[in-house]
Amino acid sequence: MAVTLADVAVRAGVSAATVSRVLNGNYPVAGATRNRVLRAVEELEYVVNGPASALAAATSDLVGVLVNDIADPFFGIMAGAVQSEIGEPTADRGGPKLAVVCNTGGSPERELTFLTHLQRQRAGAVVLTGGALEDEAHRTALAGRLGRLEAAGARVVLCGRPPLEGSDFPAVTFDNREGARQLTAHLLELGHRRLGYLAGPQARTTTRHRLEGHREALAAAGLAGDASRLTVRGDYGRSAGYAGALELLSREPGLTAIVAANDTVALGACAALRDRGVRIPDDVSVTGFDDLPFAVDATPALTTVRLPLHEAGVRAGRLALGRETPPAGGVVTCEGELMVRASSAGPRRG
């Protein structure tokens, strides 16, 4: 027997009207109440009927693209590439599709909510970009939402994040671990031995993989002993890089290099060093990650790892529309490329 809106209301302990308001998003509802309703939807596996125009077909022409922050070029480039790819009509698959970019702000709750809305709209495909949250409860809830989307006929593709454990959704991933290892190895080869690391937020796969690559290179050089003391955590923003660089300088006055979690963090670190009168790279070398468009125009130009963000987005778009068959195992791994520029040099002697 199909689960009804009334069933959800009973499970959540609210009125049917409140359930409708939460699912429609057209009326303010208290956060705690909203969470109870969404939890009931999840537990009962309630599927909301989409608009009448979408009910005529198994899925609509809508493609959902989930990003952490559309203002961040890392996500903007991938989302733009997905949109460009799905916007191209093909002889065998009809006209262009409509991309709806969903900005989660890094919130796991918002990610799940957007997926519920996309299922309601009978999205033809969903592309999730960026690193995944390393939380078992969220991973289980995410797998459930994506599984129901797939069962309803939607194609699900992961872009820039590792495969979802226990699922077979195709994934276009970046080798963040190897890219970070190459960056740190580059600095070690230049002669640096006092390296600080500005890490991203905890419980994110991208953060963990990049930090693991950095520490792998340190361990190979026999320098792993101080890795924890010389690691400062923050978010992926400029202000985190600024504050983190000052913290590293206070922890290690003899610091000669800073490895930043991404290019934006690296720019913040560079600003902090300049404000302290520290020259780059004469006194301290700085590296980033991603090779966002501004990296080459920074002063000095930023040494970083170039990720093929546009190409990954195009590939994800093709997979989402069935224009490309997933490879064996369902995982496409995109390698990074070390871009050596003026922000890194050998440590000053004497």
Describe this structure in words.
The chain is α/β, with parallel strands linked by helices and 350 residues long. The N and C termini lie far apart (79 Å). α11 links the parallel β8 (257-260) and β9 (285-287). It is elongated, with a radius of gyration of 23 Å. The protein has helices at residues 5-12, 16-24, 31-44, 52-55, 73-86, 108-120, 136-151, 176-190, 205-220, 238-251, 263-275, 309-320, and strands at 62-67, 98-103, 125-129, 155-159, 171-174, 195-199, 231-233, 257-260, 285-287, 304-306, 331-334, 337-339. A six-stranded parallel β-sheet has the order 2-1-3-4-5-11, sandwiched between helices. Among the domains are: 1-46, lambda repressor-like DNA-binding domains (434 Repressor (Amino-terminal Domain), Orthogonal Bundle); 176-307, Response regulator (Rossmann fold, 3-Layer(aba) Sandwich). α10 packs across α11 (263-275).
Please summarize what this structure is:
42% of the residues lie in helices and 15% in strands.
Features:
350 residues, alpha/beta, 434 Repressor (Amino-terminal Domain), Rossmann fold, six-stranded parallel beta sheet, four-stranded parallel beta sheet, 12 strands, DNA-binding, transcription, Transcriptional regulator, LacI family
